[in-house]
Amino acid sequence: MGSLGFWRLAQADPGWIAAVDPDGTEYSAGELLARANRLVHGLRALGLKAGDGVCGLVPNGVDGLTIYLAALQAGWYYTPINWHLTGPEIAYIVTDSEAKAFLVHERYATEGARGAEAIEADRRFSFGAIDGFRPVAELLEGQPDTPPQDRTAGATMHYTSGTTGKPKGVRRPLNGLDPDDAAELMTFLLSLFGITPGRPNAHLVTSPNYHTAVTQFGGTALHMGHTLVYMDKWSPEETLRLCEKYGVTNSHMVPTHFKRLLALPDEVKHKYDLSSLKWMIHAAAPCPVPVKWAMLEWWGDCIYEYYAATEGGGTIATPEGWKKHPGTVGSAWPISELLIVDDRYEPVPTGTPGTIYMKMAGVRFEYKGDPAKTEENRLRDHFTVGDIGYLDAEGFLFLCDRKADMIISGGTNIYPAEIENELMVHPKVADVAVFGIPDEEWGEQIKAVVEPAEGSEPGPELAGELLASLEGRLARMKWPRTIDFIQEMPREPNGKLLKRKLRDPYWEGRDRAI
Q1: Measured between alpha carbons, how far is 65 from 53 in angstroms, rounded to an integer?
Q2: Is 359 a member of any domain?
Q3: For residue range 188-223, what is the model confidence (pLDDT) as tens digits?
């Protein structure tokens, strides 16, 4: 070990630009290192010890990065909190993670202050001014910027979005390694995609930093010596502008980003020099095959895809692998294993859909404080997040859908993702969700909710046109029985569709017997 890890790189060469805030402010590695060191000294003076938790409610940018770099060299668990949550939801995470300090940006003062009631007043700190909080500046004041003693690797502890019940923290045991050595081990993930360390490399942060993958990919790129370029709010043209300006080589995106990039006028698409792009990685939702082909045609062979979970393990699809197996999410990582089983937990034959279980060599995790949930999702050493898929003869994985989203109509299993992919490619569709609603005769019928593209008029005429477009592409039994229109689809900023928000009203007052 010995050439990677942010702290090591920053000491060897303090001058390189390590991060660029959304407002364009640039931070050298030396400045960032000094801030992270001071934060460790300041929080240790408050009594924080290795193994303790720290929560942050901060926008994308250097403030959150400073907490991350402090926690990961002081042996703390860092939990970045979703800034769309309400006070009580924030308080739940602050309490459940046993946080010994809570740092909040003034932008989220209202809900942050409500959430902070879960922690003692002298452990609340604010970037900017918030009533009842001590400014972070006060915590750092007078602290040295020298490296702290007894450095030991910390970890991030992200909370899963919790489709059922309360969110759970995914907690891994701390490894006791030197922080830079631990960071170097993390770079294994990016090296799977062929990403190389050193400069000139820049990683564009396109999604909120409270998501596991966003923290993981951004943090790891930094540990490889790449410059992090932060976006505050995602927009398609701004993405292209930043790629040209900073010579972006890699990023982490979701298919919704692709769809909106492809909708840009041609003159905007071709206005920017994108020759620096090398590893544009996407995940989080199935990408319709025509959308991916269009992106590969535009950006060339720099588009990589993977399928994974906060809990560990996964697959990767290189541009070449995907072109040979269009629609795949890839084959297993070298240290990961896939297992597809039926309802009796027996392995299924090639090409047959079943529940996807994964395992990653040497990685154990627990849902914090919930051994029952941890075990319930396990099958021996494998675990599942409840997705359905199948393997082809060459071991490439294809996703069908989440088990919870599967529609059972007249005894037939129908996968909404397949229908969504067919509707999504229609030029008048900006976004779409398909789910089952109660049907006396069939058990469930198929409902589609569509967000029309700009300038498209919602109504029966558009609904008819969309259904007609499925002719010859999708079996009639998979056609939506009805199409509703919505102004804006409820999505998390990482692209995850909040389908239950759309589906629940139809099931009110019924037990889902399906």
Answers
A1: 16
A2: no
A3: 888 889 999 998 999 999 999 998 889 999 999 999
